[in-house]
Amino acid sequence: MLKNPIPRVSNQLQYRAIGIVNGKFIPDNSDQLNRGFITDNKGEKIQTVILGKALSLLKKHIDLKKSYFWIVYPKNKNTQNLHLQVAGIWDPYQLNDFHNDSSKTNFSKLLEELDLKDNYFSVRGELVFVNTQKKEIVIKVYCSSKLQNSKMKNFKLVIKGEISLEFLNSFVSLDVSREGNSLKLLDYQVVEKNLPKNN
User: Fold this and answer.
1) Does the domain at residues 16-118 carry the CATH identifier 3.40.50.80?
2) Measuring CA to CA, which residue among 181, 41, 173 is closest to residue 107?
3) What is the DSSP letter of 166?
4) Which residue spans within 58-109 are E strands per DSSP?
5) Is-same-fold flag (16-118; 121-192)?
6) Counting beta carbons within 10 angstroms of the beta carbon of residue 150, is it exposed (0 to 12), middle (13 to 18) or buried (19 or more)?
7) In this structure, which topology does domain 121-192 adopt according to CATH?
8) What residues does 160 pair with on adjacent strands?
């Protein structure tokens, strides 16, 4: 069974911001592997932090000279400074119980089978701001309650693209693509209009 790096949504109003990026991880410091950047196949660098559970995978299984598909959470303050948090590594053979027919299998083709591609992000949350002049939108994403000690109950993502002002404060599901250090809207769906106000 091929494991989907971006799981199906478990409920209609599930908040999330998750994506998949192919590239090499280069740590800032060889003694401290949890910070550095991912360099993609175009040579673009994205600032990156490796989260706890992915760190042990990195230490045990990852060859830093090779490119991998990283499962990441995006963060940004504007459309120019994307920051990634690595939650996992998508390697259908090495890290999953998946029958390996050929070591030369094309991972990009496998992703297509799952309706995914490199630099794809799924963002689901509340549309809280629309800048019609700059053609930017801001989505507020609430973190899952599983992260008890997390100080961040929610965060905002700035995405290049246009959604009608009439959908402000609605819950939206976005298909987003990474271009350099920017997130760009590909498509969206309004899941629920005019959400009740969260405190």
Assistant:
1) no
2) 41
3) G
4) 68-75, 83-90
5) yes
6) exposed
7) OB fold (Dihydrolipoamide Acetyltransferase, E2P) (2.40.50)
8) 136, 184
Tell me the C-alpha distance between 37 and 166, whole Å: 38
For residue 166, give every residue at least 6 positions away whose Cβ sits within 8 Å of its Cβ, in sequence order, or none: none
Are residues 176 and 120 in contact, defined by beta-carbon separation less than 8 angstroms? yes
What does the CA dihedral 104, 110, 116, 121 come to, rounded to 10 degrees?
A: -50
Bridge-based pairing of strands 83-90 and 45-50 is parallel
Q: How many residues does the chain have?
A: 199
Specify the residue for token string 């089978």: 113
Amino acid at 27: P
Dihedral angle over CA of 86, 92, 96, 99, nearest 10 = 180
User: Tokens for 139?
Assistant: 């989505």
Q: What is the pLDDT of residues 61-116, one digit of tens each?
A: 888 999 999 999 999 999 999 999 999 998 766 654 445 454 446 777 888 888 88
**3-class secondary-structure state, position 148:** coil
> Rounded to two decimals, what is the model's pTM?
0.89
Q: What is the pLDDT of residue 93?
A: 62
All structural domains of the chain with their residue ranges:
16-118, 121-192
Whether the per-residue pLDDT at 173 is higher than 90: the answer is yes
- Predicted pLDDT of residue 30: 83
